[in-house]
Amino acid sequence: MIGLNADQNELAKFSELAHRWWDPLSEFKPLHEINPLRLDWIDQTAVLRDKTVLDVGCGGGILAESMAARDANVTGIDLSEKALSVARLHLYESGLTVDYRNVAVETLAKERPASFDIVTCMEMLEHVPDPASVIKACAALVKPGGQVFFSTLNRNAKAYALAVVAAEYVLNLLPRGTHDYEKFIKPAELVTWTRQAGLTSLELAGIQYNPISRQYSQSHDTSVNYMLRTYRPI
């Protein structure tokens, strides 16, 4: 994997937990809880039915499968073969169809430029050495007029307190060491990178978590978790 835009420690960390990906009470519980929110947001704004969709950094396939369940033609890519093996195995249980591939997004961008109606890259940018490179590849992969969705974590004191200290050390929502605060991304940085990649921003939405109801909701507060919807001009 020499030369790939990947952190080997990050890959090893998620590969080690891969067998627990579909356990809703495991370390991946937050992904299961946040998935309905991000799925509905994508479907309501881009309409998944009969669309060709690429899920970048798909992991064990939680989002990819849910988009396939809404009649999208989904391809999921990841650099963790263990996570992909879990994702493929889960298809036997769900009966859905997703094309999972162990390939870097930059490599796929050269193979299949302008091939997808929708590209999603959720909770992934903060785990790679060069997020701008991923964004550029996502922009190349989407068709003109298509949409690209991102979600990540803001970089400020509040985000550190809630996403790292509270989530990993107090509430134990995530394994300790899941996030590296230095890799968090400010919204202005993400918007700049998407613009440099030729994408136009359409919507910036915050995500809030209620620890009592354990539910996520969309908000105008982008100080911790947030999502960005963009499109590639025709």
From TrEMBL:
Keywords: Methyltransferase, S-adenosyl-L-methionine, Transferase, Ubiquinone biosynthesis. S-adenosyl-L-methionine binds at R38, G57, D78, M122. Pfam families: Methyltransf_23 (PF13489). It catalyses: a 3-(all-trans-polyprenyl)benzene-1,2-diol + S-adenosyl-L-methionine = a 2-methoxy-6-(all-trans-polyprenyl)phenol + S-adenosyl-L-homocysteine + H(+); a 3-demethylubiquinol + S-adenosyl-L-methionine = a ubiquinol + S-adenosyl-L-homocysteine + H(+). InterPro entries: SAM-dependent_MTases_sf, UbiG_MeTrfase. One of its GO terms (biological process) is methylation. Gene3D superfamilies: Vaccinia Virus protein VP39. One of its GO terms (molecular function) is 3-demethylubiquinol 3-O-methyltransferase activity. The keyword Lipid metabolism does not apply. Pathway: Cofactor biosynthesis; ubiquinone biosynthesis. Belongs to the methyltransferase superfamily. UbiG/COQ3 family. HAMAP family: UbiG. O-methyltransferase that catalyzes the 2 O-methylation steps in the ubiquinone biosynthetic pathway. This is Ubiquinone biosynthesis O-methyltransferase. It comes from Uliginosibacterium paludis.
